[in-house]
Amino acid sequence: MIMIQHLSDLSAALRRQPARQRVAVICGRDAATLEAAGRALDEGTAEVVFVGDGEAVRRAAPSLAERGASFVEAATPAEAAARAVALVREGRADVLMKGLVGSDVVLRAVLDKQAGLLAPGAVLTHLAAAQLPAYGKLLFFTDAAVIPYPTQEQREAQVGYVVDACRRFGVEQPRVALVHCSEKASDKFPHVAGYAAIKAAAAGGRWGNALVDGPLDVRTACDAGALAVKGIESPLGGRADALVLPDIEAGNVFYKTITLFARARTAAVVQGATRPVVLTSRGDDATCKYDSLCMALLLAAGATRPDENP
Fold first, then answer.
1. Around Cβ 204, how many Cβ atoms within 10 Å?
2. Which residues contact 120 (CB under 8 A, 6 or more apart)?
3. H or E segment at 34?
4. What is the sign, positive or negative, of the torsion defined by CA atoms of 147, 271, 29, 266?
């Protein structure tokens, strides 16, 4: 198993796979999405089908067809999202990618009870990977964009998805921190009470060879020195591979802070559907969109179906 320690390693990992997967890009006519999709074609990491206004795409990037892109016409964003979802359901695409279209439009198609991609009882959640200058490896975290206040069941699903993602990136024994503002549980924060059950489930082998501990704050999860100063014993050893953040507020603040002030390079997907969904912001640059696409393709190659135990 090859360890992927930098997001720039993803392209090479995908090229080593026996066959290229296919991404369905919804309304991908903006410059950043076009650049990311074009790079996937040029580097051989994916086949690309644009779903939406094909003429607008061809005007914006005339060479895409010559480089191997294909097109499925749709008159409206909603129709484009529905047709892209249908491609995945029919096995003609492996990953969905959002272009110049609202996230609500994409998610509405994904969550459609009759024609969508979410199995009954499955949990849709946001998962990101960050490459931080001051950290010696990739740091995964969840959830910064989808679940406002996770239930116990949703948090357990988040642990399962992040453990699986770490393994896809070559981490044999993922170290997962259940994050809180303190290392002590308190009745003022009811969600922390559920951490003990998650730790017990992990110790019992629910997620295989994985270490799960918490509550820990971000510093004690990721800094062995801080852990030692506080006199805390943790199997993570201050070297977490992944953070399960308490709610969307903490997750979103963490995400925006590391990208703005720490200049973190990030990739992100939505997990829980039958295949990963690239749901980057319309304001994200081409590098972020390309990295997110590569992450989705890597996860899709061995995706855990949502009706299975993640």
1. 8
2. 307
3. helix 31-43
4. positive
Nearest 5 degrees, angle CA 160-CA 250-CA 298? Answer: 40
Buried/exposed 280-297: b ≥16 CB within 10 Å, e otherwise: beeebebbbbbbbbbbbb
pTM beyond 0.85, yes or no: yes
Q: Minimal CA–CA distance to 286: which of 33, 110, 55?
A: 33
State which amino acid sits at residue 40. A
Per residue of the chain (310 residues), what is the pLDDT tens digit?
Answer: 678 999 999 999 999 998 899 999 999 999 999 999 999 999 999 999 999 999 999 999 999 999 999 999 999 999 999 999 999 999 999 999 999 999 999 999 999 999 999 988 899 999 999 999 999 999 999 999 999 999 999 999 999 999 999 999 999 999 999 999 988 887 888 888 999 999 999 999 999 999 999 999 999 999 999 999 999 999 999 999 999 999 999 999 999 999 999 999 999 999 999 999 999 987 899 999 999 999 999 999 865 433 334 3
Q: If you compute the radius of gyration of the chain from its CA atoms, what whole number of angstroms results?
A: 19
Instruction: Report residue 81 as tokens.
Output: 């999202």
Nearest 10 degrees: CA dihedral of 5, 199, 185, 158? Answer: 60
